[in-house]
# Entry
Amino acid sequence: MKTWPQILTDAGSGYRLCFGCGPDNPIGLKLSFQWDGQTARSEFTPGPVHQGWPGVVHGGIIACLLDEASSYAALFAGMYCVTAEMRVKLTNPAPIDEPLIITSSVIKKTRKLVETRASVSLKDGTQIAEGMGKQMVIKPEPGHTESSKAVIWDMDGVIADTGPYHLRGWQAVFKKMGISYTAADFRHHTGKRNDSIIKGVLGEATPPDEITAIIREKDKNFRRLVEQKIRPLPGVLELITSLKEYGFKIAIASSATMENIRLVTRGLNIDNCFDAIISGWEVTRGKPDPQTFLLAAEKLGVKAEDCIVIEDAISGVTASKRAGMTCLAVTNTTPREELGEADLIVDTLEDITAADLERLLYRK
# Structure
């Protein structure tokens, strides 16, 4: 069997310039595929720039849609591939400015080859084209299955905007002690466990019983302030749903107490969406130590290298990298320039799909 030359897959976030699916390619098709466990599916509305004869989509564009769908079907099957062969049958002209439905499924998979069947149709079911493809495996993932990949979520500042309520909770308790706790102080400690924050303010020699009392009062303040005001950050609920459809295991690994975590997940009605929920208080050392994320991987039954962490804090990003995990950082609470250790940085999770995370995880 033919051996393909080395293909660069460790391209950082450069995959986002892919002509077929890259969201950052200004002339690309920007396809975004969904996955139901069997079929990769996307929708695309061609415009005048995609036509061949007037009013009709160019056949090369149709072939590109089939090829991209086939590649995603192979990717979802756990194989990083390049197209080795594609047969396209055009059955009807595709008018511009009308939505096209693109689907593909794997029909056969071996260690070196993935065979796919793809189709393009109008919304009324009229078939535009069908394609049979062979994808050459250039990077199989050893031991990869649909359940061996995971996304581990931080909570505060990633799933919900709880920061203002935590800040006010800290300010109230420190004010009683004659200490001014500013927004800058709070940002400096973002992502850390409460005991680390207290030691950072009062000193390492603070007695344990005093730390416990301060935490209890601060968390009481927080829960009183945040109750009935919990809102998800943009793109979070949609991404959680999509990740489950794609076969990802998902967990929360937060520095917060379990009571605070449950308050947020129940308030957002996502309490039953996670395969594991880990509080930073279940380990001996909080972030930036990797223990919290490693415990999450253990509870999910996956390897660290098969995990993506979604974080907003410097300490969390550092913890994820120390754990040997891929990290997506979102700039909800921390400036982009301070999150440079992450593998990919975005300004909102609205810009991220489950397919983006799949490709980010297996680009190595």
